[in-house]
Amino acid sequence: MFPWYKIDTVLLDMDGTLLDLHFDNHFWLHIVPEQLSIQRQISLDEANKLTKQACYDVVGTLDWYCLDYWQRHLKLDILALHHASADRIKLRQDSMPFLQALAGANKQRILFTNAHPQSLALKLTHTNLADGLDDMLSSHESGYPKEHPQFWQYAFNKFNVDPSRCLFIDDSEVILAASKKAGVGYQLGIKNPDSQKPQLEFANFPAITDYHLLLQTLQAI
User: Fold this and answer.
1) Considering the chain, what percentage of its residues have pLDDT values greater than 90?
2) Between 20 and 30 A from 153 (CA), which of 75, 114, 125, 140?
3) pTM, full prediction
4) Quick one: CA dihedral 122, 123, 129, 130, positive or negative?
5) Which pLDDT band holds residue 26 (cuts at 50, 70, 90)?
């Protein structure tokens, strides 16, 4: 699928790409509205509408991903709720074989995530994801989400990578497009970020449902 001899570094999203997105979807679509309903003594339907509108207001910005923002905005202990739900944090079953194959092919593996540093730390504690990575970056360090061109400039400078020799993998077509615009040479989408939801369709980028599809060509290097 890719000319691996032209790729030095694989840049990887976390939630939905290496981890099952089910944790995050369950948290924001179920736990947060339930807690709002209880706290504000409103119906669950009202709480769902409030949560969706609040998310819509900041979609595509760093606030959308910021636990501190949501803690202030919703007046809920978002971090405590994260910890209480941590048993749902799971690696995709195909992630570690792929990451190990990348290492075997001498490809650098860097995590590029919009997750808040506290969310990232929690997920690293509950999985062995860090064992499959060479480095990582939360977009909060850069001050911009991955949707923004300045994130990419910050990241390229920080890790001293040639973007034209990078492959970026993400479950968001919008963010894949942002990486391409920033100069990343190759993109790959993930069609099944949430193990409990239907597959996504990608219009402008190649996409897969299982990293094992890449292993044969990687291992042949």
Assistant:
1) 81
2) 125
3) 0.94
4) negative
5) very high
